[in-house]
Structure formats: C-alpha cells, structure tokens
Amino acid sequence: MDAQSFKEFGKAALDFIADYMENIRDRDVLPSVKPGYLIDLLPKEMPEKPEQWQEVLQDINKYIKPGITNWQSPNFHAFYISGCSYPSMVGEMLSAAFSVIGFHWLCSPACTELEMVVMDWLAKFLKLPAQFLHSTEGPGGGIMQGSASESVLVAVMAAREQTVLRVKAEQPALSEGEIRARLVGYSSDQSNSCIEKAGVLGTVPLRLLAADENQIMRGAHLAKAVKEDLANGLIPTICIATIGTTGTCAYDDIETLASVCEEHNIWLHVDAAYAGAALALDDHAQLRRGLERVDSLNYNLHKSMLVNFDCTAMWMRDSNRVVDSFNVDRIYLQSKYNGQTDIPEFRHWQIPLGRRFRALKVWLVFRIFGAEGLREHLHKQLRLAKRFEQHVLADARVELVAKRSLGLVCFRVKGDNQLTADLLQRITDRKKLYMVQASFGGKDFIRFAVCGMDPKEEDMDFAWHEIEGQLNKLLSEEKGKKIEAITVNAHDTQQKDNEDGISQQLSSGLHISLGADERAP
Fold this sequence. Notes:
There is one protein chain. The chain folds into 3 domains: about 5-70, dopa decarboxylase, N-terminal domain, CATH 1.20.1340.10; about 140-335, Aspartate Aminotransferase, domain 2 (3-Layer(aba) Sandwich); about 375-490, Alpha-Beta Complex (Aspartate Aminotransferase, domain 1), CATH 3.90.1150.10. It has a 7-stranded mixed β-sheet with strand order 1-7-6-5-4-2-3, sandwiched between helices. Strands 8-9-11-10 form a 4-stranded antiparallel β-sheet. Helix 10 links the parallel strand 4 and strand 5. It is built from 15 helices and 11 strands. By secondary structure, it is of the alpha/beta class.
C-alpha cells in the first residue's frame, strides 16, 4: 500500500467511524450472534494474494460490526464508562503513525517529556498533593500505565521487594525465603477482581476484609486483621484501598487506613480507577482527605476523562522505591543521558520494557476540551444519574440498595432475589439495554452506570421506559402464576374434601351392610 492508497483507505475508514458513532443509538447495544459465529464465517488460512482495502472495509461492516458490543452506545450501562472522544481517536492514530517504543528518553524524547507534562496537568486538575508532581522537588511523579490492573500489580510487587529489604535488615536471622513466605496484604471484599489477581501474580496473599454496612473498609477493620497476622508471625506488606468500588462506587476511609499503615510500615495504594475523576470537583473534596499519606494511587483516564482504552494514570510518592525494585539495565539500554538529568526512565516504573506514546492522545483531549469542558463532562454524568435515580424513586416496586454515587445507580426489585435476576435477564435478552448484576448483604441488585460517548437526558428516560415495561410484564406474569397456584391448590383441596366425603360415606355404608349381615341367621 502506497501513500495515496493509504490516504484513500484512511479517509474511507474515518467516514466509516463517523457514521458508526453518529448512528450508534439506532443499533442494539448487544450483538445478535452466537459463540463461534466469526470462526465459522472466516477462512481457515490467511489469503495467499493481497486483497483490496475496499473489500476489507466491506468485510468489517459485514462480519465484524455485527459482533461488536456497542460500548459507546448511550444504552450501554454495564460495568463503568469506557471513555472515548474524537480527539482521543485522532491522538491514537498519530501515536500509531509514530510507532514509538519509548523504553528510554532517547528512543523519543517527546514521548517521555510530554507524559511528564500531562501527568502534572492531570494531577493539578484533580488537586492531588504536590508530592505527586514531577515539577515538585522530590522523588514523586506520575506515569501512564496500561490499566489499573498493571498499576496495582506494580504497587504489590514494589511493596513486596521493599518489605523484604526492610525485614532482612531488621531481622538478619531470617532467610529471604522465610520472609517472602510470611508476607500478607489487605483489601476490601468490595475491591475489584484485579486486586485479588495482583496478589496471586505478585505472590503476596491478600486478605479481603469484610466491608461495613455502607460497603466501606475502615482503619478498624485493617487494624484487627494486622493484629491477628502479627500474632501468627506474618508480615503485613500492602493495603489496597478503593475510591469507587466496583459494586456500588463506595469510598474506603483513606485517613484511618493511612494511620494503621503508617504505624506498621505498610504500603498504602489507592485504586481510584473510576471515581478518581471526582477529585476534580469541589463538591467531592472530601475524597481528597488522606491522599497526602498514601504511597501510590491510580486513576483510569479511559473511564471518565474522554480518553479511549488503554490509559491509566499512576502516581507515586517515592518513585525510587519502585525503581530500586525493578531496575534491570543492559548495555543496549544505555545512552550518554542516563542518570545525567532529572528526566525519569519510565521503563523502571512499569512491568514491560516498551511503552506506547499514550500521552499524545491525552494531550489532544486536554487541549481540545480544556479543564472547563472536562469538568462539565463529569457534571453531566452526575446529572444524568440523578435523573435516572428519580425514575427509580418514583416506582414503589423497586428500591435503591446504595446511595447514588457519581454516575452509578444501584437498584433492585423488592422481594426475592430471583425477581431482580429475572428482570435483568429479560432486559438483556432484548438487547436494547446492557446492565450487569451485583450482590451485597444477601441482596442481588442491578448496576446502572451512565456510559456512552454522548448520553443525553432522553437516553435515561428511554432506559427507564425499557426497564419499566419489562418489570410490568414480569410482575404481571408472577401475579398470574400466584393466582394459578392458588386456583390449583383450591381445586386440589376441594377434590381432596370431596374424596374424603365419599370415603366417609362408603365407610358408613359398609358398616351398615356388615351389621345387617351379622344379624342374619
């Protein structure tokens, strides 16, 4: 493919993308395909001869698009929002064109330095403590990881290595193997699955502590667990708190957790993958309490910041603790600038060696929307969630299971859990809306998250209309089943009464007959 063909292909692809986004409301949010559909449709071998791009683009429309779950549809309300915007798409295209693999500064100076700039921009936008800025004198700073899963794993492994070094110095009689075998970490049972997985991958068993009735993990929970583990000879290593839990978007008590972690030399990481965006809003300023005392935290720009996946911001109070844990240098990674400047070598802050030029799409989004536009985008999600919540509150047949939090509303059908499960299944089968189920305190509920690239008030009304319609049918059928059950039971009872009456009559007649026979000569 030459440059001219690339221009033609690229323009056609842009038209395809724009048409897809503009008409996404008209498509079912869930695809109508079955497992294996694409495997059966496509050839078993790659084409031997080159094909024309026009044919390939037609096949994307014919084969690929029917199997897409439309995450940017305003009728997608599952999980959490998947950020997206046209500026981010353009940034992704430019990043792909430059094809940077930025494992050290000289590989592409703009890759490293633009990341430092936009990470400081974002930290200031979220009003994070100055210790997390590259521009502040000290070892702190931020990096763009691929996901919250990577960020949490980096924190777990760094905490593990730092704890091993510390305990070896404090208790030289212990071997490194003995120390590693005793490490233990903590999080809430409301935390994301990636946290439990990080414990497995990082070989630090994590205790998932039961949250309170408000789905919050507090210092008292942690202190009790730490006391138990110390008594059993274990070594507390890391605590992973959450700002915006997956189930209900609850906020752990960072201040009280920090006090316990400081007392016992435990690394405190905060997973703010979804709710971290709210730190930018003054009416959520309480979420910033205690952040100056944490060792690291992460926030997914690919959720509420109009940046497409993948892009997670991670800040560290002391990056040296991570670098010291991961630093592996080879001669081919050396340049005359190594160690000569204050520019970080981000390869030591992450799991992979190579790095994508993620900062480019973030820079475009920040410049084209501006801080004002980003704040308005966040406020819009709050307004839309409130509108949907009002529909829920107006219907006596359903109930909230937690306070509305940011763009998330959690509700259930009153009564048995099966009613909520049946309602969700009906809605999912129709493919007009997509929501997912969660559970807490023995109650199953439905999570409704405001998502999509450009959701509007009428989308919230449409969602409730769809839910209400299926709820009406469900409860009507349930009522019919109860009436039928009562009728059948009444019929069975009546039939039993009739049978009992006949039996009594037969028994009485038999007694009379036998009596006459007995008197006969």
